[in-house]
Amino acid sequence: QVQLVESGGGLVQAGASLRLSCAASGRTFSSTAMGWFRQAPGKERDSVAAINWLHVTYYADSVKGRFTISRDNAKNTVYLQMDSLKPEDTAIYYCAVLRVWPTEYDYWGQGTQVTVSS
Questions:
Q1: Measuring CA to CA, which residue among 28, 35, 40 is closest to residue 107?
Q2: Mean per-residue pLDDT over the chain, rounded
Q3: d(CA 82, CA 89)
Q4: Cβ-count burial of 95 within 10 angstroms (0-12 exposed, 13-18 middle, 19+ buried)?
Q5: H-type helices in the chain, by residue range?
Q6: What is the pLDDT of residue 10?
Q7: Which pLDDT belongs to residue 95?
Q8: How far is CA 6 from CA 36, 48, 95, in A?
């Protein structure tokens, strides 16, 4: 099993950028499809992006053109570059191992808070 630890969240103004990181431990990382989802208070889980071992990517319509998912298998790390942030992007962001491509998750980390002020 892969263990996941997210970092990089914070409080920013609308239009700013943040890069989230997800450090994974476990020998199977390089062959594991990974994703990010988010959840705001009182709202349902919202899939954001995913990347597989061939670096094929998926993005939710709400973040296309603004967010970029990437991975560095040598560092066992997945990244989410978030540009042109909007207040509606405010949520806890979770890094996850995919069970079914691209939006069904097997397990995830503890999350990192992203808050975007207007």
A1: 35
A2: 95
A3: 9
A4: buried
A5: none
A6: 97
A7: 97
A8: 10, 15, 7
Strands 18-25 and 77-82: antiparallel
Q: Are 38 and 94 within 8 A, CB to CB? A: yes
What pLDDT does residue 12 have? 98
CB 70 within 8 Å of CB 61: no
Residues 18 and 78: their CA atoms lie apart, in Å, by 14
Q: Residue-wise pLDDT tens for the chain (118 aa)?
A: 778 999 999 999 999 999 999 999 877 888 899 999 999 999 999 999 999 999 999 999 999 999 999 999 999 999 999 999 999 999 999 999 999 999 999 999 999 999 999 9
**Total length of the chain:** 118
Taking the C-alpha atoms of residue 40 and residue 117, their distance in angstroms, rounded to an integer, is 14
Q: How far apart are CA 51 and CA 34, in angstroms?
A: 5
3-class DSSP state of 75: helix
Tokens 């094929």 -> residue? 56
Of 17, 5, 18, nearest to 77 by C-alpha is 5
